[in-house]
């Protein structure tokens, strides 16, 4: 009986896969019937419909019919009837127009490009990354154009892109690619941005600063400051890609130039960017025009600090001969070196105020996780283009220095070795402020209080300096997102110096105001508030803090908009990977807190019951559905018939037990669930919910 069923199944499969042929008379009758019932239908469309309905594989009558049938089939699959007209523009009569260009492009990719570089990938689980020679289609087109003779026809960038390999060959759009060039082009997905309660408030404050700069543009310097991400430098002979994770670019299929990964490096370079803005004549003008200055720092011997930034700003204004303007406005990203509520940052600003003899100084920072609002961030994208295809490595030192450095694993250890061994002290190879310049710059604050030392970094230290405390109370105003210093203007004042600007200009200088809400759910304009006394009582985060209950201090935090926890990037806390069933690539499971041995056992057992695909982050997915039990999965592998109907829905089983308390005694019995998993399924499901409330997948 089994043999007959098997033979019947094989016969039915062969019958379904066997080619079908119809006689010419059958096709002629079909076409005549359609001509009577359907008016003005092309014969090529009728042939395609007939082939799709009957499944015949008969060859076309002529070569032209075969080409037309392919075009009609492509138009039907893509759902675009205009594609037929587009393809006619590239008929056989014009096929050789760009042959010279394609030939030179192939030589360029096989020769010059392959020798320099090829791919930039996302390093799923390799120990190397690859550099690239072309960062865009237009860049590749221009590079190949330079290799072509003067009269060579050059295709458009879009037509060049269609000669690549498709990035996803399973989609219908991949049919538009010819695959003439062994490349594919992929674009990085947009980065997610977190949300903060004070975004609107801080944006209004920044607008006030710009309007203030426009109002006093003749006596004001407006500077945007920011540090670029650290560029890591590899060991001798092992270059490191300057940009850790750049955009997706041209990807060659052959030779690659490999550079070391970013996991472990001792040295690096930190580019500091300062843009002196050309203040426009109106608030609607361009605030992105100006002169950009870039300084390179050694993070080991020249770490970023508030005093170093202030010293560099001071020398920058001296070099540009801008010290004659008595008003200075700064806008920073609010990092630890620019956070205007930190005492050490405020002291560096006071040094800058005294050294430049300013009449008015104001520094504003961006809200947390919104450094992209800083106009100087636009320069970073240009710097990233320059850092593409660049690998950095340090030159080899003498044997004694290399032996000392080989024993150091962190920057602090290298600094300690440098103190013990002067041969490791760096030469002055960067334009960053030196220690001597910083010490001289710090001496300016001693004009206010000569008892101030470099160790005075906190508010408690300031309270022990009466003269400096008096200067604070007399000249400065601190807010959550701004820091302002202004001279009083009194001729006989012994605390601050006389103003340098004209009296009529100084009389119009008022402290930068705090945003105040209007009637239209927007903050009031600069003209409406300037010159009035304001407070930051309307700052959203301040009002949110005031709503805390004094007993338990409970408050609701505004959650970010990311589909995962941005701070839970600790793969070592889990130590488990899960493979995608489609691409078969492993994905790291991460957690902000370390999992217990029991939680790892439950997690591994549960991961064996699901089919994971890329794109799932496991954020709040403790109610995963369609999970197959391990036993059922094993039975399915051994069963030839593949019965897929035994599927359990975890969500329906967990629906009624979500709010039940968890048994605390169950935590101490590590082997209880492994020995008797069938006795307490509800508790194990609750544990799964608890685990997936803090475990995510690194799918970046």
Can you count the beta strands? 17
Strand content: 5-15%
Class from secondary-structure proportions: alpha+beta
Count of separate DSSP helical elements:
25
Give me a quick take on this structure.
The chain is of the alpha+beta class.
Task: Name its key features.
3-stranded antiparallel sheet; alpha+beta; 8-stranded mixed sheet; elongated; 25 helices; 700 residues
Describe this structure in words.
The chain has 700 residues and is α+β, with helices and mostly antiparallel strands. The protein contains 25 helices and 17 strands. Strands 3, 4, 8, 9, 10, 11, 13 and 14 form an 8-stranded mixed sheet that branches. The protein has a 3-stranded antiparallel sheet with strand order 15-16-17, with no helix packed on it. Strand 13 and strand 14 form a beta hairpin. Helix 3 (43-54) crosses helix 4 (63-78) and helix 21 crosses helix 25.
Q: What layout of secondary structure does this protein have?
A:
Layout: H1 2-17, H2 24-37, H3 43-54, H4 63-78, H5 83-88, H6 99-116, E1 128-130, H7 137-147, H8 157-161, E2 183-184, H9 199-215, E3 220-227, E4 231-233, E5 240-241, E6 251-252, E7 258-260, E8 267-277, E9 290-297, H10 306-319, E10 327-332, H11 343-355, E11 360-365, H12 377-387, E12 391-392, H13 399-406, H14 411-420, H15 435-442, H16 459-463, H17 466-475, E13 476-478, E14 482-486, H18 503-507, H19 526-529, H20 540-546, E15 577-579, E16 586-591, H21 597-607, H22 630-638, H23 650-654, H24 672-675, H25 681-691, E17 695-698
Parallel strand pairs: 3-10, 10-11
Antiparallel strand pairs: 1-7, 2-6, 3-8, 4-8, 5-12, 8-9, 11-14, 13-14, 15-16, 16-17
Helix pairs in contact: 2-3, 3-4, 10-11, 21-25
Biased composition (Acidic residues): 636-651, 659-671
Region (Disordered): 632-690
């Amino acid at each position: 009986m089994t043999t007959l069923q098997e033979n019947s199944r094989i016969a039915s499969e062969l019958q379904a896969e066997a080619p079908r042929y119809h006689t010419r008379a059958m096709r002629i009758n079909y076409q005549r019937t359609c001509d009577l019932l359907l008016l003005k239908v092309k014969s090529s469309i009728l042939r395609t419909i007939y082939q799709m309905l009957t499944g015949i594989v008969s060859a076309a009558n002529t070569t032209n019919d075969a080409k037309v049938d392919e075009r009609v089939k492509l138009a039907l699959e893509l759902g675009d009837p205009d594609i037929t007209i587009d393809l006619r523009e590239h008929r056989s009569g014009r096929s050789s127009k760009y042959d010279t260009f394609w030939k030179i492009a192939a030589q360029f990719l096989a020769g010059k490009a392959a020798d320099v570089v090829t791919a930039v990938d996302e390093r799923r689980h390799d120990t190397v990354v690859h550099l690239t020679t072309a960062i865009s289609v237009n860049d590749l087109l221009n590079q190949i154009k330079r290799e072509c003779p003067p009269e060579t026809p050059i295709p458009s960038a879009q037509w060049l892109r269609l000669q690549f390999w498709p990035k996803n060959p399973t989609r219908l759009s991949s049919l538009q690619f010819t695959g003439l060039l062994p490349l594919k082009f992929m674009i990085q997905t947009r980065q997610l941005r977190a949300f903060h309660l004070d975004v609107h408030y801080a944006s209004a404050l920044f607008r006030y600063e710009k309007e203030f700069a426009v109002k006093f543009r003749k006596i004001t310097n407006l500077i945007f400051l920011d540090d670029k991400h650290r560029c890591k430098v590899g060991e001798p002979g092992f270059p490191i890609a300057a940009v850790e994770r750049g955009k997706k670019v041209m990807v060659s299929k052959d030779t690659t130039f490999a550079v070391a990964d970013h996991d472990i490096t001792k040295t690096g370079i930190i580019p500091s960017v300062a843009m002196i803005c050309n203040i426009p004549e109106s608030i609607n003008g361009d605030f992105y025009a100006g002169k950009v200055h870039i300084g390179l720092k050694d993070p080991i011997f020249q770490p970023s600090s508030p005093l170093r930034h202030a010293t560099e700003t001071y020398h920058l204004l001296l070099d540009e001969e801008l010290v004659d303007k008595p008003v200075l406005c700064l806008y920073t990203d609010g990092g630890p070196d620019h956070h205007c509520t930190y005492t050490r940052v405020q002291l560096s600003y006071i040094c800058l105020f005294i050294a430049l003899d300013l009449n008015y100084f104001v520094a504003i920072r961006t809200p947390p996780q919104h450094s992209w609002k800083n106009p100087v961030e636009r320069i970073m994208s240009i710097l990233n283009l320059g850092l593409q295809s660049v690998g950095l490595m340090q030159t080899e030192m003498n044997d004694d220095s290399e032996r000392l450095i080989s024993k150091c694993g962190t920057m602090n250890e290298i600094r300690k070795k440098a103190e013990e061994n002067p041969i490791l002290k760096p030469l002055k190879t960067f334009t960053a402020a030196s220690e001597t310049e910083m010490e001289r710059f710090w001496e300016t604050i001693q004009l206010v209080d000569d008892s101030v030392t470099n160790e005075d970094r906190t508010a408690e230290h300031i309270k022990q300096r009466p003269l400096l405390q008096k200067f604070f109370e007399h000249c400065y105003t601190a807010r959550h997102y701004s820091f302002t210093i202004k001279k009083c203007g009194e001729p006989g004042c012994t605390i601050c110096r006389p103003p340098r600007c004209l009296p009529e200009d100084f009389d119009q200088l008022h402290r930068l105001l705090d945003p105040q809400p209007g009637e239209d759910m927007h903050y009031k304009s600069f003209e409406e508030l300037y010159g009035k006394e304001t407070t930051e009582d309307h700052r959203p985060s301040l009002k949110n803090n005031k709503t805390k209950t004094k007993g338990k201090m409970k408050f609701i935090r505004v959650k970010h908009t990311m589909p995962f926890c941005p701070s839970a990037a600790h793969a070592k806390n889990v130590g488990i990977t899960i493979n995608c069933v489609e691409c078969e690539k492993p994905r790291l499971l991460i957690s902000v807190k370390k999992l217990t041995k029991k939680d790892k056992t439950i997690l591994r057992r549960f991961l064996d019951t699901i089919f994971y695909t890329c794109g799932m982050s496991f954020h709040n997915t403790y109610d995963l559905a369609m999970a197959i039990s391990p036993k059922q999965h094993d039975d399915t592998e051994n069963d030839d018939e593949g019965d897929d109907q035994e599927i359990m829905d975890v969500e329906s089983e967990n629906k009624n037990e979500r709010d039940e308390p968890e048994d605390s005694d169950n935590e101490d019995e590590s082997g209880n669930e492994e020995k008797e998993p069938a006795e307490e399924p509800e508790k194990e499901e609750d544990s799964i919910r608890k685990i997936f409330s803090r475990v995510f997948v690194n799918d970046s």
